[in-house]
Amino acid sequence: MKTKTLPLKEMSISEIYNGDIATYEVPIYQRNYAWEKDEISALIQDVYDAFTAKKQTYFIGTLVSFHKGDQVYEVIDGQQRLTTINLVLGALGIPLQNKLTYRARKKSNDTIQNLPDFQIDEKDYGIVNGYKYAEDAIDEVVPKACQDGFKTYFQNSVHLIHYQVPKDIDLNHYFEIMNSRGEQLEKHEIIKARFSKN
Questions:
Q1: What CA–CA distance (Å, rounded) separates 98 from 23?
Q2: Model's pTM, two decimal places?
């Protein structure tokens, strides 16, 4: 009997944002970026602790996506983490080859594309503040003498598990299951997700 391989791939931050060409698209039914100073500082501290402990690999969770074709991956779960990684890379001065975009959310899209100067009229202040928190956390947690090493570690040794949802799956149902834990979706958010898929 042939075993079916799971569509799971362990990926470094570098592979996600500077590996094979990819665009990660946050669909309209996802919440706005909402990580605050405490969460971003905790991530930087955890990665720095792993770096100083010389851990070969440090896992920071999962990314669940649906491959739409043309190297576009719709982000089903993990968008807060993916956005935070993008902001931390920006704060570390690391240029990105791959993009994070927000479908039908122009303000968020323009803000993330205009990092770090944010020279635009309409800004998503969740993203702007997240970038500032990332900069501050790096300055507070990572000594200047360690910043080059931390930069390399963050890109190459911090990993995610990327799960690509199979093409024949019911995305509406999957989205509801993914969001049935933790903070509950409101009914109108589930309806919005269903309509945006049709």
A1: 6
A2: 0.83
